[in-house]
């Protein structure tokens, strides 16, 4: 009863934000998460500080940044055959890999008392991608301002953003599932293996469907040829 009264009084003093205000607040909360990951990821789901709309936005920015990095980074720092890049294929494949990782983690942790739902895992990992956008997007412009001799400075920034994202993803999964560090590490490795298994099974299924389709098309053509 006391907690309920405190909750009601808190809602009266701090009314819940709605619409665009709620969205912007949850998007700004990503800055708190990346600087205070333990408290940030705990409150992200437990206290409803995050939102799926903000998570979608961060993931979209991550995908856009990744493609822009390949296409517009100075050729001195990254060698990519731009003329052969299929933007839509890169975005879709990377987004699918991300979703498969979330699915694999949810499927495995559900069997071992993990407290996170698929929604929680997806949101937490999306928020963990924030440093990638904040650092690597400006690095695209920076690559055109630096000389080749200053490539180490560029490489340090890129590596720092990726290590930061990996650290945040680790903390996110640990807080979401309420696991210890060792158990979280084991399940991250298991998640990668599980994702590879899922991708393999999907590829086998698609191959079987393709073969079956080709067989029935050939059978139809043969029957049509013999009858007509």
Topology summary:
Elements: H1 2-13, H2 19-35, H3 37-46, H4 52-72, H5 87-110, H6 118-128, H7 130-142, H8 151-177, H9 181-227
Helix pairs in contact: 2-3, 2-4, 3-8, 4-5, 4-6, 4-7, 5-6, 5-9, 6-8, 7-8, 8-9
Number of domains: 1
Low-confidence stretches are 1-16
Compressed to H and E, one letter per element, the order equals HHHHHHHHH
Briefly note the structural class of the backbone: mainly alpha
Give the percentage of residues in beta strands: under 5%
- Largest β-sheet summary: none
Helix content: over 70%
- Amino-to-carboxy terminus distance: 81 Å
Number of strands: 0
Can you walk me through this structure?
This protein has one domain (2-227). Helix content is 80%, strand content 0%. It contains nine helices and no strands. The model is unreliable at 1-16 (pLDDT under 50).
Keywords:
mainly alpha, 228 residues
Short recap of the structure:
The protein is mainly alpha-helical and 228 residues long.
């Amino acid at each position: 009863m006391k907690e309920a009264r405190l909750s009601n009084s808190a809602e009266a003093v701090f009314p819940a934000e709605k619409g665009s205000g709620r969205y912007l607040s949850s998007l700004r909360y990503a800055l708190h998460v990346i600087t205070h990951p333990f408290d940030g990821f705990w409150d992200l789901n437990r206290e409803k500080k995050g939102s799926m709309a903000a998570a979608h936005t961060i993931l979209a920015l991550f995908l856009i940044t990744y493609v822009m990095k390949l296409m517009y980074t100075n050729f001195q720092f990254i060698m990519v055959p731009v003329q052969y890049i299929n933007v839509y294929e890169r975005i879709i494949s990377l987004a699918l890999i991300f979703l498969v990782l979330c699915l694999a983690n949810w499927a495995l942790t559900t069997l071992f008392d993990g407290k996170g739902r698929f929604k929680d895992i997806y949101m937490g990992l999306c928020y963990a991608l924030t440093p990638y956008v904040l650092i690597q997007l400006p690095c695209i412009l920076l690559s055109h301002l630096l000389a080749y001799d200053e490539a180490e400075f560029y490489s340090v920034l890129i590596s720092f953003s990726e290590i930061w994202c990996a650290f945040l993803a680790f903390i996110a999964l640990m807080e979401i599932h309420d696991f210890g560090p060792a158990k979280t590490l084991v399940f991250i490795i298991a998640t990668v293996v599980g994702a590879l298994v899922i991708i393999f099974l999907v590829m086998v299924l698609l191959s079987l469907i393709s073969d079956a389709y080709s067989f029935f098309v050939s059978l139809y053509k043969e029957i049509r040829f013999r009858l007509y």
